[in-house]
Amino acid sequence: MDKQRPKLLMLVGPTGSGKSKLGIQLAQALETEIISADSRYLYRQLNIGTAKPSPEELSQVMHHMVDCTDLDSPWSIAEYKTAVEKIIDNLNNDGKIPLVVGGTGQYIRSFSQNWIIPEIEADDHFRQVIERIGDDIGFEQLHRNLAVLDPVASSLIDYRNHRRTIRALEVILKTGKRFSEVRIKDELPYDLLILGLSWERQELYQRIDQRIEEMLESGFLQEVECLLTAGYRNYLVKMGVIGYTELISYLEGSISLDEAVMLIKRNTRKYVRRQANWFKPEDHGINWFNAKDPDILEKMLDLVSLRFF
User: Fold this and answer.
1) DSSP string, 181-223
2) Which of 53, 179, 283, 287 has a Cα at 20 to 30 A from 277?
3) Residues 227, 43: contact at Cβ < 8 Å?
4) Edge-to-edge strands of the sheet including 34-36?
5) Whole-angstrom distance, CA of residue 39 vs CA of residue 163
6) Rounded distance, CA 165 to CA 96, Å?
């Protein structure tokens, strides 16, 4: 343990792996607070379809970085990192070990590798030009063009996420550097311990399929209808949030509900495979635990105790 640096604990893993529930148990046992590292939880309008912790779960432990902004005011990674750094410092000053929980790889890496994210000023006119190109050739083709210029960035960005695809191309075309290379890794300022939840892939897929069915039973479709009525359609489409875009296609008559559900399940599985690019089983910086181990909480707490106490 390095007593000179602030402590930081992370719980990572793919979507549907049970991070939220286990994170609450860890936070309660450690008498600390949770910092969400799920990019979708930032938005007040996204609830059922993101499997955001329920009000009851949120009341059990203090959660930070949940319901921070609206869909029409999206946050950058730099904004997220700046906000979280303050929370980490405050919790350490209070004698608590901050617990970051999530599956958004860029958010996790921004801390585990201490990215220095350059302030490349957004050029709205330039973005609009790229967006119009995407409208003309299709955003899947625009994403393929990104893959030619920056294969690493394209492998980590969902082609449905128009906003991130456009931003990556904007940075490349304005700076002449690959988007994946503009983030500088700096010396880690934290005494960091990362815990990972591991599932056998087919079992995880089954959990995800079941969760999607439960979301639909809980009113996911009605949530999307309300968002359309409130005028958030274009924001949802540009962000490419899985589940919402497919249900929009159904509500607009492009596909059937069965087709939408099938696509949600298929695209979520693809997302899990992309997450594997961020959280690799062979990554020695992550202490992996079998998610089905009945003693997983105790084993994680033992490791935390060895490291920090």
Assistant:
1) GSSEE----SEEEEEEEE--HHHHHHHHHHHHHHHHHTTHHHH
2) 53
3) no
4) 63-64, 34-36, 99-102, 7-12, 191-198, 286-290
5) 13
6) 37
Cα distances (angstroms) measured from residue 235 to each of 70, 163, 231, 245: 10, 9, 9, 10
288's tokens: 């992996």
The CA angle 287-103-240, to the nearest 5 degrees, is 160
The token pair that represents 8 in the structure block: 């930081």
Are 245 and 71 in contact by the 8 Å Cβ rule? The answer is no
* Whether the Cβ atoms of residue 227 and residue 252 lie closer than 8 Å to each other: no
User: 118 by DSSP, 3-state: which?
Assistant: coil
Q: Which candidate, 210, 218, 222, places its Cα nearest to that of 247? A: 222
For residue range 186-235, list pLDDT tens digits in order.
688 999 999 999 999 999 999 999 999 999 999 999 999 999 999 999 99
Of 5 and 247, the one with more pLDDT: 247
